[in-house]
Amino acid sequence: MKIIFSIILITFINISCVTSAAGAMDDMNEFDNFISSLKHSAEEYSRQDFSKAHESLNRTAECLNRLPRNSQNTLMKQDFQKMIAEQSFSRVHGEGKTNLEIICEEIKFGFKGALYQHLVDALELHEKRIPYYSKKTGGLSDPVFKKLSAIQRANLPVARYIDMKALPFQKEGIPIISGDILPMNCKPMETPSLYHGTISKEDAESYRKKMIVFQRKCASDLNKHEYLKIAEKAYNMLQETREFEKSRKVHFAMTIHMLQSLGYSSMRSAKYYEMSNGRTSDVSRMYLSIQVIPLQEAISTDINSHPSHAKGAGIMINDVPEIPFESEWESRMISMN
Description:
Structural class: mainly alpha
Helix content: over 70%
Strand content: under 5%
Order of helices and strands: HHHHHHHHHHHHHH
Radius of gyration: 21 Å
């Protein structure tokens, strides 16, 4: 399934950042209804009543349709409709149990997987640190964390959906998603920023344009399951970003974190693809997409953090875990030579 990338990118920037905590809770309640409806479908399948099961799945899709319009939820809706179509095809042709049927059987009420828990852990860590940073910066850091929190909360339903899709493969021993998430081991919040500069509008615009080109190339590779090409591009973009930091004396910690995560997950996606004979491609597509799409917003987060860095506060620098992607990629390159 190809992604209309520029449209999704614009949608993410314009919509996903305004999600309130109350709105996010409503979204999660709707997703609980989605899971409840899935369980009902599982009961129909267990009774071999495939017609009613299909009707139940269509009602399940309506739960997703009630979620807000944003890039994350659009990916979910498209993917679930595809799963329903594959389910119908499988039944017509008498094929075996599909991933959707396995998910219906395995999913539990209140299910929360590794990706969802990672976002919750990040939210909790940031909430604990907000008062310190606010005092350190005279309130300059407050809007940065408010916006970041809104984005993270908007991603909670899609995180649970991706965790759900990974269940059948994890049951087979393929650790997709669960093997991609690292604990929130971050620097102490008191660690000062190394750089204290701010970036010019011209430099910011130039860097954004380079990132847009990078995003579009990654989207093309993703459609072709070229995961190692994405990893290579992420590595090169990381080196360029680090040089950009040094030359301008500014931090781009959130952008670097997202690029590291993208590269790390892409390397593993290639392994999962091989282990599953290509069956993990839909899960990888969704997971990598929600890392590629928000890179422009990551740049905004970093730029908005620069005034706090000027006060010596290490916001974002201290608040994301280091991901060992670059060292792994370099080791791979050495082993291939």
